[in-house]
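User: Hello, can you help with two protein structures?

Assistant: Certainly.
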Amino acid sequence: MKAPPLLRSVLFCPANEPRKVRRLSAAGADVAVLDLEDAVAVSEKTSARTSAREALAELEGVCRAVRVNAFETGLTAGDVDAVVSADLDVIVLPKVEAAEDLRRIDRLLSRAEAANEVAPGSIRVLALIETCAGISAAAEIARGGGRLLGLAFGAVDLGNDLGLPTLRGDMTAALAYGRAKIVYDARAAGLPPPLDGPFMQVRDQGALEEDSKISRGLGHGGRICIHPDQVPVVNRVFAPDPNEVAFARRAIEAFADAERAGSAAITVDGTFVDYPVVHKARRLLALADAVAKAEGRRPTRT
């Protein structure tokens, strides 16, 4: 699996904590990320590379990723060399602030793929946008390379960069601009809807659900998870609403009948339906099919 069919839930786990790593495959996330960056103590970063490489081979039924350290640390090249293998699908690159960062990681990956007999260009990149500079350059970053799988919003680091004087308070207002901007930048570049950042109150599932509904309303396609218990909530919120799926099916069928009769503007269940609505309905059903496949259910048919 070199690219995930879905980007709803991306679950991070310290690469050097075997007990947590063993839970990744069964958590139900679309992407499992072995973390070499913020979740790993400085003294453990080198040895964690070996742990990540070994753990990749044990992950099953999930897109396999590694978050490397940012370029500013001087550790990125060593991380890439250590983890690139046939078992790796995605590199998560933190602190992306310019398209040049994507070109740099592409060069490192190309070299490592060649050294490890991995198909050239097969490993994708998820870019974390988590600084003011990154938010400002997000449109350029979104157009920055063929390996780019998508963008993700780094709320915690951005809050730090903004100098917000809170550790547990609500940062929604201060982060609103960047949280929305990367949605437009990603879509303008032809990328999938981006991922929202993690919700830090890991035991408050109700608040996670409400905040994820805000994310979905802004146009995010999923979000980063930092605990396995968050995955079911995120998967549910970012899956299509069953009522919307049923309406999309009715709208497509009714529009097809009307189109054969020469009409391209109709009303279905009191809602106006024309070509843009039908196009959106088809995208909704495609997402529903992808979710059904990921969860082992029977796909929606039109």
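That covers the first. Now for the second protein you mentioned:
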Amino acid sequence: MNTSTLLADLGWTADFVRQLELDEIGTTTPARVTGVHRNRIDALGEGGGLELIPASDLNTGDVAVGDWILARGMVALRVLDRRSELQRKAAGTGMVRQLIAANVDTALIVSSCNADFNVGRLERYLVLCASAGIEPVLVLTKADMCDDPDNFVTQARRLQRGLAVVALNAHAGAVRVELGEWCRKGRTVILLGSSGVGKTTLSNALTGGSAAVQDIREDDAKGRHTTTARYLVAMAEGGWLIDTPGVRELQLTDVADGIGMLFDDLTELATGCRFNDCTHDVEPGCAVQAAIAAGDLDAGRLARWQKLVREDRINSESIHQAHQRNRAFGKMHRKVVDKRKPSIR
């Protein structure tokens, strides 16, 4: 991308312009975040690439790839409100939310036509997208290496009504054409999926890059990470791509609305249960269990729905409680510091 890049090509819209304060117009530089590091932020503005230092009150942990920020000189001042935001519970036992990306239009959820295809994992990505208001597209790679790719396509389309599903050979030259509808000028897409499904190969095809690609293990169809951080890069057709490391553990939080949208058929069925607090287990008059008995509903889908609802509730409550504890500790610490300050007479 040359230095004459227009802000509109980067995704700058009236929604962001309206957020500028009067004293910021003409005195600050809008820029799109392309990479986030511990002590600096890489960005791209109308004049080209920028390496910014965050202001004292701006934590890089609160900045995501794809964000729009305002800078003055080489200092990043603040993050503008996002049109969309992808986040998850950070991996491990801690109770912290982790930003994945911001201001994304479409998520290319990548799976392969082999043992990696996992309905439960794909549903998690779809819930994440539904909650964030991002259009999902399921991309099935390695279709050329599968005896019956149509079987995987059929399973994928059952995951969500109207879901766009594309089966392809990521090494073929037609990738840009097959995904061109979502990768056009001014649009931002993100690649999501586990390691070894062909995300790096797709990224190379869409951007014209040559990132390292590692082979997958034949015994379990799993691979190793080839992308180690999130970066915003230009696509050959004019849009922008956020590539992400393979996700081993996608723990969801604050996605109750997304769960409701993806499993709207179960939510609707539940309204017919005899009891309002029905757990859809052994209660009499359960409409959900009746649908399973009649062969109209897969019991596995009910189990996955219940698991996601429990996980989201526990994670959301725990993170909220951790946030409240941190706020309380901060207030107590400030009081102690204030008491220790010598009084001025």
